[in-house]
Write a structure and sequence with these properties.
116 residues; 10% strand; single chain; rod-shaped; 70% helix; mainly alpha
């Protein structure tokens, strides 16, 4: 069955399709590319620093929360034995949690803005 409206639309669209290879994409502006690259580098640098800080704070909180005593044929683990040690460990742990949150936020930004 022949549809004149469909045939007319097909002819119009075929002209558009034949013109597509002649179209060339615009040359990207080098200033825009350079600023985008600089933003990406800065964001990756921030992500790297946040990962280092978050790891350091986490390991410090873990290592400061206990100590070992070895001697006289026995080994003991002491948890939070010094005065004020609990407050220090909690403060460092809070820093670790905040830094991990910022790290994952930066990681999300890298994955959604830089890699796409």
């Amino acid at each position: 069955m022949q549809d004149p409206a469909f045939a007319k639309e097909t002819q119009r669209l075929s002209g558009v399709l034949h013109a597509l290879p002649a179209l060339q994409p615009a040359d990207p502006d080098s200033r825009i590319e350079k600023s985008a690259l600089q933003r990406a580098k800065k964001l990756l640098q921030i992500q790297k620093i946040l990962l280092a800080l978050a790891s350091t704070f986490s390991l410090n909180a873990l290592s400061l929360s206990f100590s070992f005593e070895v001697g006289n044929g026995h080994a003991r683990v002491h948890w939070l034995t010094l005065p004020g040690q609990l407050q220090v460990v909690l403060a460092i742990l809070l820093l670790a949690v905040v830094t991990w949150c910022f790290y994952f936020l930066a990681r999300h930004r890298v994955r959604t803005r830089v890699l796409r």
